[in-house]
Amino acid sequence: LRGEERERPRWQRPPISLLLLLQLLIAALLTLALARPVAEQALAAIGTRTSPEQRIILLDGSTSMLALDRERGATRYDLARQRALAYLDDWQPGDVVTVVRFGQRTETLPASDAGEVRRLRSRIASEAAPGGRPDLNAVLGLAANLVLPDRTTRITLLSDGGLSVDPVVAGRLGAPIALELVGGAANNVAITTIGARPEPETADQFMVAAVVANFTEEALTVPYAIRADDVDVWVDTVTLDPGAQRELVVTLPPGAGQVDVALDYGDAQARDTRAALVLRQAALLSLDVLLVTDTP
Predict the structure, then answer these.
(1) pLDDT for the residue numbered 290
(2) Which pTM was predicted?
């Protein structure tokens, strides 16, 4: 029996050669390649990505975004920046995120590390919308220049849909864009124009004209008041057909220095239901204007 045991072949470690190492390396690479889709699916299920991405958030800060969404108790801009903050929460190391906040001015706010993301969150959460009516085509042109060629780019437009865009400009982005609408439909009655001129008969009196517009789809009768130096001069109502506008004209008492026109209509855009105009001002409040132009 001992002799038989001695004659049994023993296991021997195969010699390590360059060919063997290459075969092992190829097998390991194939295993990783086959396992990667499964790993990505598993990580996606728990909210983790395996490769960095670029996120561009276009945050509409125009005047219409200041409208109040009565159902949610917040302005459209508040709802939009809540979504922007949620996207910032999805940031992972290696990601590049840029918030383009646009209105009467456009701001580009980038972040590529945890500290910058924290500071960006603070700015978005605390700073007000710029207001105004922006050029969305120019904003999309800016976004196209921000796209990085070395990673997946996602572009999201957070807006109430009150802006138009050239489809050709949108097609040049170089990355897909998703529109997320915020806020519901809102009625609005607004003072769109206010002006004053001296009465021809006397230099001490002004005639004031204000234009009121109805942007709703129904006829409305709206109370209004015109006050001079905090004293009611004229209190009445104005009836407006859908989409119509009316001019309110009144002559102010002699010596009036300021006029206010106010509508008593609780709509989503409370800021445009009041307008004020200074008719006279002290010398200390006067303005010196310097105009620099290339047009003679």
Answers:
(1) 73
(2) 0.61
Residue 223 in 3-state DSSP? strand
Confidence grade of residue 185 (pLDDT, cut at 50, 70, 90) = low
Q: Is 97 exposed, middle or buried (0-12, 13-18, 19+ CB in 10 A)?
A: buried
Q: Which of 92, 133, 131, 132 is nearest to 114 (CA)?
A: 92
Rounded Cα gap, residues 100 and 137, in angstroms? 13
3-state secondary structure of 151: coil
- What does the DSSP 8-state code read for residue 62? S
Buried b (16+ CB within 10 A) or exposed e, 143-177: bbebeeeeeebebbbbbbebbeeeeebbeebeeeb
Give dist(CA 53, CA 157) in Å, integer.
Answer: 17
How far apart CA 284 and CA 19 sit, in angstroms, is 91
Q: Are strands 106-111 and 68-69 parallel, antiparallel or unpaired?
A: unpaired
CB 116 within 8 A of CB 88: no
Non-local CB neighbours of 160 within 8 Å, separated by 6+ positions: 60, 64, 65, 67, 76, 181, 182, 183
pLDDT in tens, 222-278: 999 999 999 999 999 999 998 899 999 999 999 898 999 999 987 767 778 899 998
**Tens of pLDDT, residues 280-289:** 765 445 566 7
Lowest mean pLDDT among 21-25, 145-149, 272-276: 21-25
